Recover the amino acids of this structure.
């Protein structure tokens, strides 16, 4: 395991116990997505229309960028590449219900 992978695993292990997160806010889960270092992330969140959506994606994908500026606030949204739909998606930081990455699952506690 590389040194950066070890550091990433250590950071996640500080938040998790037995593969399940102790307790997290939706904002903490958003930070965990951003710190996934390109690893696959599965997350569930509530869409703007109130429906729950599951997404499998990765941070740091630049292959499909076409230029231009972000139209959403990075303070309010996490932008992730959806590997199933092959496009970028913006997730409201306050609507994330759960994530799974690096073999561990975290659930938001409201």
């Amino acid at each position: 395991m590389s040194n950066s992978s070890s550091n990433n695993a250590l950071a996640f292990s500080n938040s998790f116990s037995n593969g399940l997160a102790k307790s997290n806010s939706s904002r903490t889960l958003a930070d965990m997505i951003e710190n996934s270092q390109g690893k696959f992330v599965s997350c569930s969140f509530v869409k703007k229309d109130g429906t729950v959506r599951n997404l499998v994606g990765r941070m740091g994908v630049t292959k499909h960028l076409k230029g231009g500026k972000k139209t959403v606030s990075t303070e309010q949204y996490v932008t992730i590449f959806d590997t199933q739909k092959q496009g970028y998606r913006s997730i409201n930081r306050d609507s994330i219900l759960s994530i799974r990455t690096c073999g561990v699952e975290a659930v938001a506690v409201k």
The chain has two helices and eight strands. Residues 3-15 form the longest helix (13 residues). The beta strands are 16-17, 20-21, 41-46, 52-58, 77-82, 87-92, 96-101, 104-107. The first strand starts at residue 16 and ends at 17.
